[in-house]
Specification:
This protein has two domains: about 240 residues, Growth Hormone, Chain: A; about 250 residues, Growth Hormone, Chain: A (Up-down Bundle). Helices cover about 70% and strands about 5% of the residues. The protein contains 19 helices and six strands.
Amino acid sequence: MASTSLIAHWNPEDLGFWRTRGSSVAQRNLWISIPALTLAFAVWMVWSVVVVNLPLVGFRFSTNQLFWLASLPALCGATLRIFYSFAVPIFGGRRWTAISTASLLLPAAGIGMAVQSPGTPYEVFVLLALLCGFGGGNFASSMSNISFFFPKDKKGTALGLNAGLGNLGVSLVQLVVPLVINASLFGDLGGPPQAVTKAGGSMVLWLQNAGYVWVPFIAISAVTAWFGMNDLAEAKATFADQAVIFKRAHNWWMCWLYLGTFGSFIGYSAGFPLLIKSQFPGVNALQYAWLGPLVGALVRPVGGWLADKVGGARVTFWNFIAMAIGVIAVLQFLPNGGSGGQGGNFAGFLASFLVLFATSGIGNGSTFRMIPVIFLTERTREAKALIEARADAAPGRPKQVGGPLGGLSQPAATGGLMEQAIKDANKEAAAVLGFSSAVGAYGGFFIPKSYGTSISMTGGPEAALYCFIAFYVTCIAITWWFYSRKNAPMPC
């Protein structure tokens, strides 16, 4: 199967190729990729639910220790994304998707075993939290892989679907885990329940199910990826080939913008329950926390679709304006007098945050649509300039192109240069998609930490929120100057 899974020629920009073969192959790879990515996000975020229940089943960890268990997957996942960004062109999309998905079995099964004994050392939980970072790393390679399969005018929608439905894993874990830990899903095979005393009554939990429930689905997804997906020969590249992105200015600008969109999504997701609890103590935060990630994930494909229709830069520009307004609205509904103060309006607070989650999702889709367009435009501009320069160098003679193309005729050389430019653009765009997702993922740590720092220093989260507004203003300025204004250097 491995040999037939390798596709030697892939040119989705060729309309005839796309219609006869490309579309069906690309769609198959996309719809196998999506559930694998959903599971990756679920494993990545599982600690947000597990840490709440550890004290109930007998673990005597400090609040600070629990905080680090919740934070380490985000830090590890963001860092792993830097390396995962370059994995697909080196190992192949099919192979890496199957291997990286299978790696999720380690933290999922490990959590199931570790939580059954209150004597499990804290260091074991630290290791498992770090291993959950595998789930966060998978996003970079998954998006890189899918970007190779689709033509420019369909990348936004495809990447939006892959990421948006993948992001549903955040809401999925917050919905599923509280349900499965209250039932014996695996009988004796899953281990005995843990006795819990809560609110004056007694009950039992199967906290191990928080990890075990994902194991069969991970195994099925990994096997499906191995036998159902494809490697593209034309996507092959070494790390050195891809490292050229660090010299591209647009790589760094798009990292900044994606920190503003995905960083907001994952950071708000991680910090939302705690922020609700600290500002509105009378509200059950877990009843509402899953709504924000759900909204952000569902609208991400809309952002990609809109970007395909009207342009990624235009959508991104107005979206950042909406995000800044959303934070201003949140400020209006906070209680007076800092953390847990009087007043406030939870309904308005929740509605404002749902707007923030929605706009972060739309921005995720639109920025990821911008990246392939930017790098395709940049590389083809360079190829056209080279072709024109070589033509001008030999006026009045049959057009010959020297250098590395030898004595090729002008049409042959022109086609060769443009074809190479498209290949280079696809490889660079895939690497930037992964690398920018790594930078953006650090928002999963910094946003909740900003809340905590602001509350400890000022008594409320307002200072952090004002900093977010200032950050969005920089994103608006970058988007306008480089991408969306009239005569922008790189309209997209």
